[in-house]
Hints:
By secondary structure, the protein is of the alpha/beta class. Helices cover 43% and strands 19% of the residues. A hairpin with a 2-residue loop joins strand 5 (79-85) and strand 6. The protein is globular. Residues 23, 46, 50, 81, 83, 85-86, 90-92, 110-112, 114-115 line the site of guanosine-5'-monophosphate (5GP).
Amino acid sequence: MTRTKPVDSIQRRGLMLVLSSPSGAGKTTISRRLLERDDNIAMSVSVTTRPMRPGEVDGRDYHFIECERYRTMVVEGELLEHAKVFGHFYGTPKAAVEAALAAGSDVLFDIDWQGTQQLANSARKDLVSVFVLPPTAVELERRLRARAQDSDEVIAGRMAKASDEMSHWAEYDYVIVNSDLDASVVRVQAILAAERLKRERQVGLFDFVESLRQTL
Length: 216
Ligand code: 5GP
């Protein structure tokens, strides 16, 4: 007798989950919690030419590289997307993302609206984009100041850029107002759970249904 294939053997196409927000809206904390709670999603570690901040680890937070190496990566097509943000260059290494997706893992990106637009142009079907908004402007400024890692000048620059970044909210699939961290993490998990069930991502469904029907 033909056996129905086990339901957990249905092959799924990996997705690319982008979280964008003005800095200070809580996106980094949401990402960290999501990674702790979900074994099937891996963080994409970007390259950047900006200097390392205290507490950051090379290879974990970013791959910190020289401008020359960055230029080579752009020219050689080694980056999935790249952009200049706050006067420094950032980019997503292609190879690591492709390896994670091929291994059946989803990939989480903490990138800005410019990078998201590029991914939307090159890989729309695999992209799920989420924009995180701060609950109030006052709270955003408080969070930026609480970090105290950057100079006043840098913070002022970021406040100005925040409004710029926020103007792109409508280009995203989902929008979360981060007034409660735990609730926001649960919301991102809900988005991920639903997107993983999209019919077109469950590439093994055809075989699964065929084997179901053969056993009837
Ligand atoms: P930070 O320097 O504070 O870590 O990041 C500054 C901004 O750069 C954040 O909005 C972050 O999302 C964005 N960013 C980080 N990595 C990348 C990347 O690889 N590509 C793009 N387009 N933006 C990035």
